[in-house]
Amino acid sequence: MAARDSAAFAEFVGARSGALFRAAYLMVGDHGLAEDLLQEALTKTYVAWPRLRDVSSAEAYTRKTIVTTAISWRRRRSFHERPTDVLPDTAVPDPGEAVTTHASMVAQLRTLPPRQRAAIVLRYYEDLSEAQTAEVMGCSVGTVKAQVSTGLGRLRDRSGANLDTAPLDDEAVNS
After folding, report:
1. Which of 51, 76, 95, 105 has its CA 20 to 30 A from that of 65?
2. 136: enclosing H helix or E strand
3. Is CATH 3.40.50 what the domain over 3-80 is classified as, yes or no?
């Protein structure tokens, strides 16, 4: 890769890695896994960088890579295993209602199948249009609508919350 391409890639990573990390976190629900997912997606983007016709499409390419990689990880049996050295003896006290509500929503989001989760994250957290979401997911707009509708229905059934007011803000995701 040419030096100017490396500089352009480094500039892209510096400018967009925060937003891409938040999307990755919402896909997998774990900070460590989100870091790994983002790293893998950025590695794939770096390899594809010379082939990208328009550098402005790099974010869309990386976002699509995050989605497809998260879905493929989810299909592996080992994804559900979480090793730990020490089991906690007591529960951590509740720091606030907003954090609790957010954690509950993220936990409920993680129970959805990967494509429903991806559609909801891209549509409502990343604020992409249905057409943009369909492009990132590699499916039709109708499929996005169906995935979002089914996913939101399941979230409503499980949580009983009004999903229009439930927090999924940047501060809670980064905490």
Report:
1. 105
2. helix 130-137
3. no
Q: CB burial class (10 A; 0-12, 13-18, 19+) of residue 64?
A: buried
pLDDT per residue over 12-46, tens digit each? 999 999 999 999 999 888 899 899 999 999 999 99
- CATH fold, domain 97-174, is Arc Repressor Mutant, subunit A (1.10.10)
Rounded to whole angstroms, the Cα distance separating 46 from 43 reads: 5
CA 30 to centroid of chain Cα atoms: 10
Please state the separation of Cα 175 from the chain's center in Å: 16
> In the structure encoding, which two tokens stand for residue 111, read together?
């129970």
Closest CA to 124 of 166, 159, 153: 166
Tokens encoding 27: 């896909």
Residue 125 tokens read as 């957290």
